[in-house]
Amino acid sequence: MAKSPMDTLQLSYIQIAIAFLLFAQAKSTTEHTSTPQPNDTNTACIASERSALLAFRAGLSDPANLLSSWKGDDCCGWKGVYCSNRTGHVVKLDLQGSGYTIDSDSRKVLAGNISSSLLGLQHLRYLDLSFNEFDKMQIPEFIGSLHKLRYLDLSMSMFIGRIPPQLGNLSNLQYLDLRSSYQDRDIHDGTYSTDIMWLSRLTSLEHLDMTYVDLSAIVHWLPVVNMLPTLKFLFLTSCQLRTSPESLQLSNLTSLETLFLVGNQFHQRSTPNWFWDLTSLKYLDISYNGFYGPFPDEIGNMTSMVELHLSANSLVGMMPSNMKNLCNLEVLYSYTSNINGSITELLHR
Ligand SMILES: *[C@@H]1O[C@H](CO)[C@@H](O)[C@H](O)[C@H]1NC(C)=O
Ligand SMILES: *[C@@H]1O[C@H](CO)[C@@H](O)[C@H](O)[C@H]1NC(C)=O
Ligand SMILES: *[C@@H]1O[C@H](CO)[C@@H](O)[C@H](O)[C@H]1NC(C)=O
Ligand SMILES: *[C@@H]1O[C@H](CO)[C@@H](O)[C@H](O)[C@H]1NC(C)=O
Ligand SMILES: *[C@@H]1O[C@H](CO)[C@@H](O)[C@H](O)[C@H]1NC(C)=O
Ligand SMILES: *[C@@H]1O[C@H](CO)[C@@H](O)[C@H](O)[C@H]1NC(C)=O
Ligand SMILES: *[C@@H]1O[C@H](CO)[C@@H](O)[C@H](O)[C@H]1NC(C)=O
Asked: Could you tell me which InterPro entries the record lists for this protein (predicted)?
């Protein structure tokens, strides 16, 4: 018997309803696993993960008693520990220290050793150990084996030595912050990398901060960065970079919005330069680099620009008239440059 049009109609309604249900379920699943909520703790803690956390804690020194809640069975309720309420696995560990404050007695930081027992948390997607005091310790290589990580923040925690290339195994990583904390001391006391090929494997990366990491041994850094097509935020401030290529033949960096190249040692003409072709840029800071030459005409093409920092270079001459194309520009810093001419004309432009 042939189906009546009405039956067909009902059938497709049901199919649509089912599709919606499946979609809604898939959506809530991904939301819960990718951004665990602090209240997602109504699942019992997995015993092997509790042991891993306790072994990790045993290696730490915790003078401010930050981890006093780390007792009892329900590790999903411990400070800084977040479990998926779907699977019960620990998916997020947020142990950010309090950083530097004026009242140094009240600093709340962790120190000591980072135990490889962390590897017991194989479902970890988010790890933040920033602003602690792992003084004179290297970033552990085993972190590269937490292969589900999407978010990794190891910044400002007084790590020293080579950045382990094993981090290149974290192919799901979207956010990587390796800011080094030794900015006031000799940079060689902080972290360094002599070969950044490992970075090119992080093809989902959107945010990369290597501020104060010593990259002075690396000449061809740009082709590596150019392998990261999803990059939106790139911070390479005070990395002792010496080369900034004049152009990038095939730019992958079409999503890049924020580029900080402050305080490197380029000492070359400001133009031509690869970053003037990145017309998607909204924030560009190339201060303190020894760039010289006339104020670059290319600026007129960067119509998305919101903030432009050019200070403390040796740019000369008048701002180009095409700067009037930069309708979104809100901030222009250009102190200690040799821009001459009339201030009225400059403001007009
Ligand atoms: C958890 O939920 C309760 C009640 O909904 C709320 O009062 C509390 O602030 C939440 N805790 C966190 C850490 O979000
Ligand atoms: C997970 O927790 C959230 C927020 O507490 C809740 O809305 C959701 O229904 C829970 N999901 C499951 C599968 O228990
Ligand atoms: C960290 O490891 C070193 C060397 O194994 C050891 O001497 C030190 O006591 C450990 N620190 C803590 C807090 O366990
Ligand atoms: C991780 O990376 C290192 C160095 O890049 C490599 O030798 C090793 O085989 C990788 N391990 C895995 C499991 O992929
Ligand atoms: C652009 O990125 C992809 C993915 O990393 C890479 O395979 C490709 O070689 C890159 N293109 C260039 C010109 O570097
Ligand atoms: C601006 O962009 C156009 C089109 O891409 C190009 O032809 C021109 O040379 C650029 N101007 C400057 C000053 O770079
Ligand atoms: C501004 O500086 C340029 C380059 O040094 C020079 O050629 C020009 O005459 C100067 N203009 C004014 C108005 O001082």
From this structure: Leu-rich_rpt, LRR_dom_sf, LRR_N_plant-typ, RLP23-like
Taking only the tens place, the pLDDT of each residue in 166-222 is 999 999 999 999 999 765 555 457 899 999 999 999 999 999 999 999 999 999 999
CA of 39 to the centre of ligand 1 (A): 6
φ/ψ (deg, to 5) at 230: -95, 5
Please state the CATH superfamily assignment of the domain spanning residues 1-175 in this structure.
Ribonuclease Inhibitor (3.80.10.10)
Ligand at minimal distance from the CA of 115 is 3
Task: Give the residue extent of every domain in the chain.
Answer: 1-175
pLDDT tens digit string along 229-271?
A: 999 999 999 999 999 999 988 899 999 999 999 999 999 999 8
| Ligand 6 lined by 297 (C-beta under 6 Å) | yes
Residue whose CA lies nearest to ligand 7 atom number 9: 317
Task: Give the Cβ contact number of residue 230 at 10 Å.
Answer: 16
Q: How far is the CA of 74 from the centre of ligand 1 (A)?
A: 17
- H and E: helices and strands count for the chain: 4, 18
